[in-house]
Amino acid sequence: MNEARIALVTGANKGIGYAIAAGLGARGHRVGVGARDEARREDAVGKLRAAGVDAFGVALDVTSRSSVAEAAELVESEAGRLDVLVNNAGVPGEMGPGWDQDPTTLDLDVVRAVVETNVLGVIQVTNAMLPLLRRSASPRVVNISSSVGSLTLQADPNIDIGPVMAAYAPSKTYLNAVTVQYARRLAGTGILINAACPGLVATDFTGFHGPRTPEQGAATAIRLATLPDGGPSGSFFDDNGTIPW
Ligand SMILES: NC(=O)c1ccc[n+]([C@@H]2O[C@H](COP(=O)([O-])OP(=O)(O)OC[C@H]3O[C@@H](n4cnc5c(N)ncnc54)[C@H](OP(=O)(O)O)[C@@H]3O)[C@@H](O)[C@H]2O)c1
């Protein structure tokens, strides 16, 4: 029997997360639409179903321990296991007028809020879903990162990596580092975990600035979510291949 693979995408009600959910659905996955707002979640589930995707809603605020635990229970009762987890939910944090975050004047509450969602949220969701992922024949975890989290690119004065961003960019560096630790810990289990950069995508996140569509931004995540057994783990990719740490 060729059973559908089960995926959960966090922050799937809009933007890149929605495009990942749609793309995985189009590839035959049954997709859990993780979203914290009920109306936005149900709207997204409705749109996905209208497009022929086997979608179900998963109430999920990645920063809430109880919400994450309830989401894992819901996925277990809906599907009994999880084959693909895409940790997509993310926030930029408050920005200055040049869409920057100046380290010399940074409000620590901005840092806390960004790390809470972009890093701690990913750890919290991943650990809650791990028992369900371990029931999959070919489990995959994709963490949506960003090339602005690359220390190599940030430290190269010859590369234009955008404005100074002292909360958001390091949150993705931290996420990348955590991804490597998971890959080390899960080596040999069959669980492949990688980080993906979507490129600069026109979404709410960027004030709809950026040359790429959400569908283009979703492509690398979909590739990593559908890696064959024995594929890479603990790496950082965009459409062009690996990104330096
Ligand atoms: N856009 C880009 O150019 C770009 C570039 C590199 C990386 N990324 C990364 O790509 C990911 C998606 O970004 P996007 O551009 O698609 O942004 P977006 O359109 O603003 O979508 C962000 C999603 O995350 C959700 N979210 C935020 N906090 C959450 C929480 N605590 N619990 C659950 N969901 C939460 C949002 O839900 P609500 O609707 O409820 O707010 C929304 O669904 C992020 O991780 C971002 O860092 C984006």
UniProtKB/TrEMBL annotation:
Keywords per UniProt: NADP, Oxidoreductase
Protein name, as recorded: Short-chain dehydrogenase
GO cellular component: membrane
UniProt-listed CDD domains: carb_red_PTCR-like_SDR_c
Coiled coil: none
Top-level taxon: Bacteria
Upper lineage: Bacteria, Bacillati, Actinomycetota, Actinomycetes, Kitasatosporales
Family indicated by similarity: Belongs to the short-chain dehydrogenases/reductases (SDR) family.
GO molecular function: oxidoreductase activity, acting on the CH-OH group of donors, NAD or NADP as acceptor
